[in-house]
C-alpha cells in the first residue's frame, strides 16, 4: 500500500513538472504592399515617387488618385501607371517638370497639380473580379493639411509641406519597408533627403537617404516637348537595296469618285502594278495626290508588291483624298524623284475609275482594283472625249532601272472611235407614216382648185350627149 501511494505521488509530481502548452495567437505583421508611395513634393517642382517592394510584371494595374479634400476616401483614380515591369526596390517618378530623376527607372508627366493647403493621394490597384466586373482597392495613401488654429480636421500626419521650419525643398518621405514608420518631412537636394528625427530624450538627429543618380540617366519617356527642327535626327531616306536594278511600280488605276455617298474617305483607291519578276520593296516610297496642292503618304517599312501583281491602296489606309475635279496621282521614290504619274483628269465620273491601257488613260465603267484593267465605256461616247495620251513618266527614278510601259495584261473594250454608220439611228416607221400623211394633206390643200377643175372635166367626158328628136 505504501508502495502504491509513493508511485501515485511520484506520477503526480511528474505531471506538474511538464511544460504547459497554451494556444496563444501571435499578431502577424502587416503585409507589405506590392508598391507604395515613397516621396511626395507639393511645392514648386511637384513630384511623386512610387517604389516597387516586390517584383512587378505589369505596373499598369496600379493607378494614382488625387483629391484636394484631405479627408477624401476611395478617390477615383485619374493617372495610370506605365505598362512596365519593375524589380523589387526600383522606383518610378511622376513629375510636373524637369525634376531630378535620381534612381527612377521610368519618368512620366504628373497629370495633376497638388494643393499646398490640403489634399489626399491614393495608390490604388485595379482588380478584375470576373470578365465583366472590376474594382479598385487602395494599396497606399497619404493626406496633408496646413496646421491652423481654425481648422481642426483630424489627420494622421499634420504637416505643413509648404514651409517646414527652414527647409527650402520640403519633401514628404515614407519607408513602407520598415514596420511602424510613418510619414516624415525632410530637405531634398541632389538626390539626398535629410529627415530630422527626434530620439529618446528629445535629441534631434538627421536620417539621410541617398539615391544613386547615374551619369547617363535612367530611361525616360517624354510626353510633350517643343519642336526643334535644328535638332532633327530623322534618318536619311534610302532606296531599298533589293530594288536596285528593278523597274519601278506603275500607277495603273485610280478611283476618285466612288459610287454612292459618304465613301470617299474609305473607298477611293490608287492601284500600283509591279512589272518585275520579283517582289518590289515599297518601304519609304511616296504616293501623292493633287494637281497643285500635294498630299503625301509614305509606305511604312515592310510594305512590298509581289511580282507581276496589281495592288489597290485605299484611302481608308493611306488617308489620301483624290479630287473630283482636275486631279492626278504620283509615285515618288524615297529620295523624292518622280517615278510615274497618272494623266490629269477633268471631272471624275461617279463610280468610274481613271485607268491606263496600252499607254492611254480612259474613264472606265468597270473599276478593277487589284486586277488587270478593263476599259468599258458607253457606246455613245467618243474616244476623243474620254482618253488622253500619257506622256508623264519619269525614267530617272530607281538607280539602274528603266520605266516600263503599262502592263500588257490590260484589255481594251469599246475604245475605238465609232464609225459614221454606227452613229446613225433608224427612224421609226410610224414617224414616216405621219410625215407622209401631212405632206399629202398639204398638197391637197395647196392644189384644191386645180383638183376641182380636173374632177369637173372628168365628169363631162363621162356624161352621155343628149339626142334631140
Description:
The protein has helices spanning 2-17, 264-267, 315-318, 383-386, 420-423, 429-446, 448-462; strands spanning 35-41, 47-52, 62-67, 79-80, 91-95, 104-109, 118-130, 133-145, 170-173, 184-189, 192-198, 204-210, 250-255, 269-273, 280-281, 286-289, 295-298, 304-305, 310-314, 325-327, 329-332, 338-341, 345-347, 353-357, 360-364, 374-375, 387-389, 411-412. It is elongated, with a radius of gyration of 47 Å. It is α+β, with helices and mostly antiparallel strands and 469 residues long.
Which properties best describe this structure?
Immunoglobulin-like; disordered C terminus; 6-stranded antiparallel β-sheet; about 475 residues; 2 domains; 8-stranded mixed β-sheet; about 15% helix; alpha+beta; single chain
Estimate what percentage of residues fall within beta strands: 25-35%
Number of strands: 28
Number of helices: 7
Low-confidence stretches: 152-158, 161-165, 215-227, 381-385, 389-425, 465-469
The gist of it:
By secondary structure, the protein is an alpha+beta fold. It is built from 7 helices and 28 strands.
Record the SSE blueprint.
Blueprint: H1 2-17, E1 35-41, E2 47-52, E3 62-67, E4 79-80, E5 91-95, E6 104-109, E7 118-130, E8 133-145, E9 170-173, E10 184-189, E11 192-198, E12 204-210, E13 250-255, H2 264-267, E14 269-273, E15 280-281, E16 286-289, E17 295-298, E18 304-305, E19 310-314, H3 315-318, E20 325-327, E21 329-332, E22 338-341, E23 345-347, E24 353-357, E25 360-364, E26 374-375, H4 383-386, E27 387-389, E28 411-412, H5 420-423, H6 429-446, H7 448-462
Parallel strand pairs: 5-6, 26-28
Antiparallel strand pairs: 1-2, 1-9, 2-5, 3-4, 3-7, 7-8, 9-10, 10-11, 11-12, 13-14, 13-24, 14-19, 15-18, 16-17, 16-21, 20-23, 21-22, 24-25, 25-27
Amino acid at each position: 500500500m505504501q508502495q502504491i501511494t509513493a508511485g501515485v505521488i511520484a506520477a503526480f509530481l511528474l505531471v506538474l513538472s511538464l511544460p504547459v502548452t497554451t494556444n496563444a495567437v501571435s499578431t502577424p505583421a502587416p503585409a507589405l504592399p506590392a508598391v507604395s508611395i515613397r516621396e511626395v513634393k507639393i511645392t514648386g517642382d511637384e513630384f511623386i515617387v512610387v517604389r516597387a517592394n516586390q517584383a512587378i510584371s505589369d505596373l499598369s494595374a496600379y493607378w494614382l488618385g488625387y483629391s484636394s479634400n484631405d479627408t477624401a476616401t476611395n478617390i477615383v483614380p485619374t493617372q495610370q501607371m506605365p505598362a512596365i515591369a519593375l524589380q523589387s526596390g526600383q522606383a518610378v517618378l511622376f513629375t510636373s517638370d524637369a525634376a531630378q530623376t535620381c534612381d527612377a527607372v521610368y519618368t512620366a508627366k504628373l497629370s495633376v497639380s497638388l494643393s499646398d493647403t490640403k489634399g489626399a493621394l491614393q495608390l490604388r490597384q485595379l482588380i478584375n473580379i470576373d470578365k465583366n466586373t472590376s474594382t479598385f482597392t487602395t494599396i497606399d495613401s497619404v493626406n496633408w493639411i496646413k496646421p491652423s488654429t481654425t481648422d481642426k480636421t483630424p489627420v494622421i500626419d499634420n504637416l505643413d509641406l509648404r514651409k517646414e521650419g527652414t527647409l527650402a525643398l520640403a519633401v514628404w518621405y515614407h519607408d513602407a519597408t520598415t514596420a511602424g514608420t510613418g510619414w516624415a518631412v525632410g530637405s531634398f537636394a541632389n538626390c539626398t533627403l535629410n529627415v530630422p528625427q527626434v530620439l529618446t530624450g528629445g535629441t534631434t538627429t538627421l536620417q539621410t537617404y541617398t539615391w544613386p543618380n547615374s551619369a547617363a540617366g535612367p530611361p525616360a519617356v517624354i510626353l510633350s516637348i517643343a519642336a526643334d527642327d535644328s535638332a532633327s535626327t530623322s534618318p536619311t531616306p534610302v532606296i531599298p537595296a533589293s530594288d536596285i536594278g528593278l523597274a519601278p511600280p506603275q500607277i495603273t488605276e485610280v478611283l476618285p469618285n466612288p459610287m454612292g455617298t459618304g465613301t470617299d474617305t474609305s473607298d477611293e483607291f490608287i492601284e500600283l502594278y509591279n512589272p518585275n519578276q520579283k517582289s518590289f520593296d515599297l518601304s519609304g516610297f511616296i504616293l501623292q495626290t493633287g494637281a497643285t496642292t500635294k498630299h503625301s503618304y509614305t509606305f511604312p517599312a515592310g510594305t512590298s508588291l509581289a511580282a507581276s501583281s496589281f495592288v489597290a491602296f485605299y484611302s481608308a489606309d493611306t488617308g489620301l483624298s483624290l479630287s473630283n475635279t482636275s486631279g492626278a496621282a504620283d509615285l515618288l521614290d524615297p529620295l523624292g524623284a518622280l517615278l510615274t504619274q497618272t494623266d490629269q483628269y477633268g471631272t471624275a465620273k461617279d463610280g468610274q475609275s481613271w485607268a491606263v491601257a496600252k499607254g492611254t488613260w480612259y474613264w472606265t465603267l468597270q473599276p478593277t482594283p487589284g486586277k488587270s484593267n478593263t476599259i468599258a465605256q458607253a457606246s455613245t461616247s467618243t474616244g476623243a472625249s474620254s482618253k488622253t495620251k500619257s506622256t508623264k513618266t519619269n525614267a530617272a527614278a530607281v538607280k539602274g532601272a528603266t520605266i516600263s510601259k503599262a502592263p500588257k495584261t490590260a484589255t481594251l473594250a469599246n475604245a475605238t472611235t465609232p464609225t459614221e454608220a454606227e452613229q446613225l439611228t433608224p427612224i421609226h416607221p410610224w414617224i414616216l407614216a405621219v410625215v407622209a400623211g401631212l405632206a399629202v394633206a398639204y398638197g391637197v390643200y395647196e392644189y384644191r382648185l386645180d383638183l376641182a377643175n380636173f374632177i369637173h372635166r372628168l365628169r363631162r367626158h363621162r356624161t352621155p350627149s343628149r339626142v334631140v328628136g
